[in-house]
Amino acid sequence: MNDIPKNCTVLVIGGGPAGSSVATHLAKQGIDVVLLERALFPRNQVGESLIPHFWKFTDQLGVSEKIEQQGFVSKAGGITAWNGKIHQISFAKYGYKRPGLHVERDIFDQILLQHTQRQGAQVFQQVVVKKIDIDSASPIVSYVDARAEVNIEGCLQCRFVVDASGHSSVMAHQLGTRKTIDPSLNFLSLWGYFKNSRYVGVDRRSHAVADLQTVAPVTFVMSHADGWLWHIVLREKTSVGLIVQSGKMKGMNKSQRALYFQQSCATLPYLKNLLNDAEFVEHSLQYRPDYSYYVTQICRQNYYCIGDAAGFVDPVFSHGVQNAFYNAAVTALAITESLKNPDKSARFAQLCASRIQQFYSFSRALSLGDIGKNGVNRALVTSLMKSMPQLELELMLVASEMTNRSENFKQLARDAGVWAQFAEQENKSNLGFISELNL
Ligand SMILES: Cc1cc2nc3c(=O)[nH]c(=O)nc-3n(C[C@H](O)[C@H](O)[C@H](O)COP(=O)(O)OP(=O)(O)OC[C@H]3O[C@@H](n4cnc5c(N)ncnc54)[C@H](O)[C@@H]3O)c2cc1C
User: What's the pTM value of the predicted model, to 2 decimals?
Assistant: First the structure.
């Protein structure tokens, strides 16, 4: 068992996509990084749908080949059935050469973390960060090392702390900067796994899993009376999740929630057909009540909060992992520059916070139409729209048509002058609308 060092330049809390990738970026430049992860990987994680934007980040990290070798399910796009309207997005239509993926997150995240270690970062699993003292110029991080039979407490001093602890948000909880959002937009999630579910193909028909090699799947998303649901086919099983307005489940205990899930799967249109001959994987039902929050003071000159540790957006458009990768890339840049120019470290942290807030705002405006509150900055959203690569922007503008929650986002796109130009283009003017789905 390797000893945890007493000092390092950057201490990263958490080995999910945000933590592993910031550590990889820094280690690749020879910066001395230690990453402490509470769990022993592979660890369970939700969030299996990845949009193709993620490849540019894994290319930068140098891990795309390992991901390709794993043979995850390649998906062609998404289909939504939302308030009776059906839309389809095909990534290839928007010029994407590489597919989106449906990944088992325990495996995906482990590939990323192993890569981090190979780049030279020191990774310690089963070590839980308890407290961060950021009052001095060199923060002190206290942890409990649970690798041996008896837990050992320790601490480590560093120049920068990156909190990538996911929804635990260790730093923001400690500083009291984690804010719960407006109750009307407060959701929770219930999800579980099925064997032998049929899946939704790019041809808008349902297929047996045996067809996966011949007909590419899409991520299927559908609205229902209490929220929305996802259906994501993986290699050995299918992930089905319900997003429900928190108020709808108030006071329900574990078995009542299980009944609600079971009844929804057996009765909701489309879903019930897909699950007709499927078996529920016993004990696979999971629940995430703590789902809607954002963090103020994301970065300061000696600490950075990134990924889910900095905020969480309804996952309807699969932005979570992409957000984690993006936050990690800008944070690595800010830290690298701060090390070269220590006098400017407060300024680099401020710029980084603004970038993180910008993507959070964009994502939140797109998925929930939420603008001017809950940490969403309107000016940052329009500036991102204007500077985004055309291809990515187009895909997001089509996505805004798929639910009825993005009206404010579309108005912003009009204000930013990017909507008309896009909607008038030939073949894109129907914005993904399709008339039927044969499931
Ligand atoms: C219901 C639901 C569905 C989702 N669906 C999608 C989707 O389809 N596509 C998508 O892209 N995203 C989705 N997401 C979001 C996605 O899962 C997250 O955005 C993503 O995992 C964030 O990565 P992260 O590295 O910030 O955090 P995480 O992946 O949560 O990693 C944080 C790590 O920190 C560790 N940790 C926590 N506390 C400590 C501590 N005190 N000390 C040390 N380590 C600690 C944890 O063990 C964990 O490994 C979904 C989320 C939910 C809740």
Answer: 0.96
